[in-house]
Fold this sequence. Notes:
34% of the residues lie in helices and 21% in strands. The chain folds into three domains: 9-197, Histidine kinase-like ATPase, C-terminal domain (Heat Shock Protein 90); 204-323, Ribosomal Protein S5, domain 2, CATH 3.30.230; 355-385 and 398-603, Ribosomal Protein S8, Chain: A, domain 1. The longest helix has 18 residues, at 162-179. By secondary structure, it is α+β, with helices and mostly antiparallel strands. It has 20 helices and 22 strands.
Amino acid sequence: MPTIARLPDLLISQIAAGEVVERPASVLKELLENSLDAGSTAIQVHLEEGGVKLIRITDDGCGIARDELALALTRHATSKIASLDDLERVASFGFRGEALASVAAVARLAITSRERGAGHAWKLRGENGAEPEPAALMAGTVVEMRDLYYNTPARRKFLKSESTEFAHCADAVRRLALTRPDVAISLTHNGRSLFQLAPADRARRIAEVVGDDFVAVSRAVDAAAGPIALTGFAIDPTRAGEAKDGQNVFVNGRFVRDKIIGHALREAYRDVLHGARQPAVCLFLEIDPGLVDVNVHPAKTEVRFRDSRAVHQFVYHAIQRTLATPIQAPAAATSENRGPATLITEHRPRPAAPAFPPPLRHQASLGVAEPAATAYLAFAQAAQRPAPTSSSSAADAPQFRPQVPVDRDGPPLGYALAQLHGIYILAQNAGGLIVVDMHAAHERILYEKLKTAFDSRQVATQNLLIPAVFSADPLDVAAVEEHAEALAELGFRIATLGPGQLGVRAVPALLQSGDPVALARSLIADLREHGISQLATARRNELLATMACHGAVRARRQLAIPEMNALLRQMEETERAGQCNHGRPTWTALSLDELDKLFLRGR
């Protein structure tokens, strides 16, 4: 039987290093966190060969006393916790006391440090029996790691190429730079300066690290409730890409990959993302340290919340509210400085928009008398906002270009000019030209109204004078008979007219302009595939989205100017109106400056 023996200290340290030192970026992260915990205001990072040959961190922190240098290189030695209570409320980055000892076990390590108030600096090499020796350093600490895995060549073989290892190191620096925008950070690789970040506010630092483009197409997040707060930026759904690595989430300053938060983000974006696009975010969650356990992973990239459901709901609702903000007024462009029509955060209350009218020809097909056109004309006159009086009469203007007011304090989407190919609405606002996909926009409006009506169990029903009859197979008929009550809750009344026939007798009033047969077929297909349980789950929203899609105004339908304006006003009052139910954008803007560039004006 094999003899049980105690492992040598060096081997113990090398085994422990495997949990902490996965690659050069792991070392870099631990050393940077030590510098931040030391109160540094400026940190310089120098790398060679992707960090495998050299990692040098220079900071201006509090420094380490001569008598504590050797202790800093031993396992489980730290100044950051002293009791179980400290461990349960960790507020610092590093606290395990393993990083320096682990690095010294698999690389050549040297520390030079000058404690504040000390006469000079001291240097200690990470070698057995080494003693501190005097050194020159103005202030702070320099940690130098050379030749990673020089004494464990088998592990060095698992490292990737220099460019790959450097990319991981650069990511580690950027993440720490995001969490501490008040600290100046620079990065040099193989003698080449990659970036130098001066102290800045959080928004400026995010723009510098993640990119100006990200901030420009994102929405600011700012929410708080009791011991928890969430700030940062979440990308506009129409600008999201398919990359899965665009989520920078920090909990009490730590970069984490948390399943709870990740799921909350996916749920918040579910209604507004197109296809396989992913939500890109840069979010900072602050929570009482006693309510989160950061001691669940050696690399500290995972956390455990005491009440994970509460955190999930908080993040979900904070992001959902941010994405649901109605369209806001664009910044007015002056003749001297006409910039793009950017969105501002101020919400200006506006009167409720008139209801978007159903197409007259479909009303007639359902047995509504033609005199309904008289009521429509009254609606059109009320919906059209009169233009300011001028010396020229509106009747003198060409029919294809109606007079439209350029109102600096007017509605965000302006006033309709014309319709393009029966698909797009062209409108003019203070910033320039607005282009709206009318089907996509109406689809979102109907969807949000359906959700509100269904949640309040107030789905108004519109009876059809003549039932819309269609053929159906026995399974369709069985589904209708089995789920008659659920169909009624959705505003549908579908009757069995024969062995292979169904008739739609009533539809939701919001969808009365849609094709009743197409609506019924889609609804029955969903019921057959998913059952009634979908009405109480996420499938419910998918069902309502499908109904809205079938009920929205179709492409190629000609709209009058008042109808277009009515649609624009409803968009401004509807949550998530910037995207249709499938995540596609519903509108875009071209500023006057952008139009001038297209036509080379001023050149």
